[in-house]
Amino acid sequence: MNEPTPNRKPRVAVVFGGRSSEHGISCVTAGSVLQAIDREKYDVVPVGIATDGRWVLESGDPDRLRIESADKLPSVDGAGASVALAQHVGSTDLVVSEPSQPPRTLGEVDVVFPLLHGPWGEDGTIQGMFEMAGVRYVGAGVLASAVGMDKAYMKIVLQAAGLPVLPSVTVTAREWAADPQTCRERAATLGYPLFVKPARGGSSYGISKAHDPSELDECLEEAMRHDPKVLVEVSAEGGREVECGVLQALDGTPETSVPAEIRVTGDHEFYDFTAKYLPEEATELDIPAPLPPGKTKEMQGLATRAFEAVGCEGLARVDFFVMSDGSLVINEINTMPGFTPTSMFPQMWAASGLDYPALVDRLIQLALKRDTGLR
């Protein structure tokens, strides 16, 4: 693995966009990170992945990557110059190809900051590519990324570690097509109301609530528009939504942020896309969350255990329900939480004493210290 050349700034490739339905949110996240990276300390190369999978050299203009509305999200300009990692062993060079021009190199990449959300990026696929190429990168490795992306397997891992999760069943498109009645009966054993989610989705795309059996079919069909594997889960009725950030110190020790509570307002029954990314319309945040000191400590301990159970590295956001009896249940773990200006992860760390630029710098420094391969 190449070490950064002495007397030059480490080169950071910020990779964003991607083929998933969360392409636009990834672009928004990248805009915030690109604005925050210290250009005096790092040489930054913005690399976009278009919706067709093409890698291109992006402008990196944060203003172009801002969110305007729920139906007007930024996207990668696929017409840019093609970018690829050099295809020979031991090289971490970025090679740029343009029509009627010989390929040119941008030099070695010291670390990649992958800001991809959803499949083909947050799920271990791109992490595997970086491992094969011997390129350092920010965040969780292959297995942790894959487990964190698949909500069904995530629950299996967390349960095996003795951590509390909500009861659920998994329904695949094949099962639904072959025997829908059995799928309905399996869901009914959980009791209504139920939440129906794409098992490997994010940003609340495709999530809906089935209040009774008459709504289940439509909810399943909506979730399967995003993923052929669907999680049907007990609704945490009366539960408060509270999140906790986990971030490794430079010695690898997991540290936790103050928790934050999300209170959905208006006509939003749950924390949907609009509530997440246009929060002035639909949410109120309490940072830190109003919890008894003992409950905060318990949540931070569970967040650390979840981080370690999944095998995370770098960062994660662990989402909880605080039930009406005061008990804690883990909703999910997110191995690449959003970094938009309104995202909970950076807000929690800012309230814990680590502002946005310092948070970005910590993640890059962690990645520079970490080897690829078995560790």
From TrEMBL:
Top-level taxon in the UniProt lineage: Bacteria
Catalytic activity: 2 D-alanine + ATP = D-alanyl-D-alanine + ADP + phosphate + H(+)
EC number: 6.3.2.4
InterPro entries: ATP-grasp, ATP_grasp_subdomain_1, D-Ala_lig_Van_CS, D_ala_D_ala, Dala_Dala_lig_C, Dala_Dala_lig_N, PreATP-grasp_dom_sf
The organism of origin for this protein: Nocardioides koreensis
PANTHER family xrefs: D-ALANINE--D-ALANINE LIGASE (PTHR23132), D-ALANINE--D-ALANINE LIGASE A (PTHR23132:SF25)
Location of the ATP-grasp domain: 155-365
Class of the enzyme per the UniProt entry, highest EC level: ligase
Entry's Gene Ontology molecular function annotations: ligase activity
Keywords: ATP-binding, Cell shape, Cell wall biogenesis/degradation, Cytoplasm, Ligase, Magnesium, Manganese, Metal-binding, Nucleotide-binding, Peptidoglycan synthesis
Required cofactor names: Mg(2+); Mn(2+)
HAMAP family: Dala_Dala_lig
Main localization of the protein described in the UniProt heading: cytoplasm
Biological role: Cell wall formation.
Pathway assigned to this chain's UniProt record: Cell wall biogenesis; peptidoglycan biosynthesis
Protein localization: Cytoplasm
The name this protein goes by in its record: D-alanine--D-alanine ligase
Family to which this protein belongs: Belongs to the D-alanine--D-alanine ligase family.
